[in-house]
Design brief:
This protein has about 325 residues and is an alpha+beta fold. It is about 30% helix and about 25% strand. A five-stranded antiparallel beta sheet has the order 10-9-8-11-12. A four-stranded antiparallel beta sheet has the order 4-7-5-6, with no helix packed on it.
Length: about 325
């Protein structure tokens, strides 16, 4: 797939979220790939003057390579909507819902997407009692890349109840999402918008060499084995691809998304659960979407152009609808 014309692309990266280093790697990878395909690229490291810097650059389209708040939660999307600038990935409403794990459950579960139960808890209450039977998982409601995730077990180091001085997300967030721990295998499936509609690419199994698939395991070379395609039964692979596509559609994702799963193989299809859908998946050399795209025969630069094409199609459709 090749864009019909060469574009001036502003690649928006960096910012001040916990995922800033990942965003810088994603943005630089995208910028280099687009320059290699003949496009003009302006790199913009997100700061409080970002609107003025985008206006000054006057790009044809913005490639949003930000991760976390405010690039993934609807803030940047709303700004770009007001500016009338086309941008990649999901829009405002989708971003607001998908960044919030509880809102995501409320959107997806009624459509038959299996997700673990759970509830929002006050971090201060964790030092009094467990919110769920152990083992359970605690995670921030609106952070990505497994930032601040803790698995609380019977014999863990957090204490019972969790000690005030135990290091964990309760020290950084006033509220957390508590979910039952799902044993089993970690998997993910990416969806990319083609000209004829979105398509799930593949299923990858993630095997951390120690601990679980946390931030360090995701972005440190050599810490996690990526098995693509995952060595799983055909019915589970099919179900993952179908669910990832449904999540992309129900949430209204654009460009690309990535849905993460846990699968307890002892329970068969009933053991498959969605953890979250990421609307701004990483584009670093270790990232899963480029890896799955390559498996599907799509090189990195072509993938970047496909995401740009999706943004321009959506913008053109909305502009025509507004004119009508």
């Amino acid at each position: 797939m090749t864009l019909e014309r060469k574009l001036h692309v502003a690649v928006l990266m960096g910012g001040w979220a916990n995922e800033r280093p990942v965003s810088l790697m994603s943005g630089e990878g995208v910028a280099n790939a687009l320059e290699g395909r003949g496009h003009k690229v302006t790199r913009i490291d997100m700061d409080r003057q970002v609107a003025a810097r985008i206006a000054e650059a006057a790009p044809d389209v913005v490639f949003n390579a930000l991760h976390g708040v405010p690039g993934e939660d609807g803030s940047v999307q709303g700004m770009l909507d007001l500016m009338g600038v086309p941008y990649t990935h999901s829009g405002l409403a989708t971003s607001v819902v998908a960044i919030d794990k509880q809102l995501t459950k409320q959107a997806l579960v009624p459509h038959g997407v299996p997700m673990p139960g759970g509830r929002i808890v006050k971090s201060a209450d964790l030092h009094l009692r467990d919110p769920l039977p152990r083992p359970y998982v605690l995670k921030p409601v609106n952070e990505g890349s497994s930032v601040g995730v803790a698995i609380v077990t019977e014999d863990g180091n957090y204490g019972n109840p969790i000690a005030h001085d135990a290091k964990g997300p309760w020290q950084d967030f006033s509220e957390l999402l508590a979910e039952p721990f799902i044993k089993g295998r970690e998997m993910t499936a990416a969806v990319v918008d083609f000209e004829d509609g979105p398509r799930a690419l593949a299923v990858t199994e993630l095997k951390p060499k120690s601990g679980f698939y946390d931030f360090d395991a995701k972005y440190t070379d050599g810490m996690t084995d990526h098995i693509c395609p995952a060595q799983i039964p055909a019915n589970i692979e099919k179900l993952c691809l179908e669910i990832a596509s449904k999540a992309h559609e129900v949430l209204g994702c654009r460009g690309t998304s990535r849905t993460d799963f846990r699968w307890d193989e002892e329970q068969g299809e009933d053991g498959l659960f969605v953890l979250e859908t990421n609307t701004q998946p990483g584009m670093t050399p270790l990232s899963l979407v480029p890896e799955q795209a390559k498996h599907a025969g799509i090189e990195y630069g072509e993938l970047c152009e496909m995401i740009l094409a999706s943004a321009l199609r959506y913008h053109d459709q909305n502009t025509k609808a507004g004119d009508g």
